Each structure stands twice: as C-alpha cells, then as structure tokens.
Amino acid sequence: xxxxxxxxxxxxxxxxxxxxxxxxxxxxxxxxxxxxxxxxxxxxxxxxxxxxxxxxxxxxxxxxxxxxxxxxxxxxxxxxxxxxxxxxxxxxxxxxxxxxxxxxxxxxxxxxxxxxxxxxxxxxxxxxxxxxxxxxxxxxxxxxxxxxxxxxxxxxxxxxxxxxxxxxxxxxxxxxx
Length: 177
Prior knowledge:
177 residues, five-stranded antiparallel beta sheet
C-alpha cells in the first residue's frame, strides 16, 4: 500500500499580476534516503466572481511548481522549461463574462476544472516545493481572486547518492560564473 500526502491551500492573486516563491511544502531531515515524488497537482480559481466592470474578454492563468526559489523573474520566465528548478507547468484559459447577476470567470474549454499540471516525472522533491504564477487578461481592471491548489506527493526511498543528485538538480545554479 502506497502512502500519499496531499497538500491543499489557497492564496490571493490580483488579475494581471504574479505570485513568486509561495512555499507550499518543506521537508527537513538529515536522512538522505527519502524524497517525495509529485504524483499529481491541480489548480483552480476559488473566486470566480469579481467586479470587472464592462471589461469582458480573454483571461489566462499560468502556474509552475519549483524545487527552489526563482526570485523576481519576468512573466515569461515563470513558465520556463529550461529552468531545472521548475518541475510542473499549467496554462489555463478562461473567459471574463458579465451578466445581470455577477461578473465571473468561465472555463474556455481548456479541460476540466480543476486544471491539472504537466509534471516532470524525473523530479524528486528533497527539501521544498514552491508555487509561482501569473494571470493576464485583455482587461484594464484587476480584481483580487483566491486560487486553490492541491498537490499529491508520494514518499520515495532512495540511496544517499541519488538524493544528493536530486538536491543538486533542484537548486538554482549559475553555471556562467
């Protein structure tokens, strides 16, 4: 029987803004025989209603999981598959809609909500896991929304040398200097 660990939570993010280095998991131990494999990860808007005025249109949410902090990077670098620290990616499209009752986000046919991350199967989390993301729209208004996440981790037994290699792979490295 496999033991799984689920992490659930939420965070606040304005429309047309970004969130960087939101720590969602931390594992500290001197035992170099243990890591965590990401089985699945999901993201969905908790706040679908928000005052957007007359601004309707396209809305995109982009989120990534990373094994180290990525710092204050530009919007396009938040979803950079060349960065070894990043191990999960999600891009989901929505429509900002206006009705007589409320302004709301509607799924743009991008699959079911919650949306599921594409995960790098070769990543083992050995210490921390961070969430990064941004939302963008063709609107001039930027209400604040709550976003939910759920991440499912599976413990993994490893040899100390494997753990050390995953620690090195999962950290930001400046190989030019």
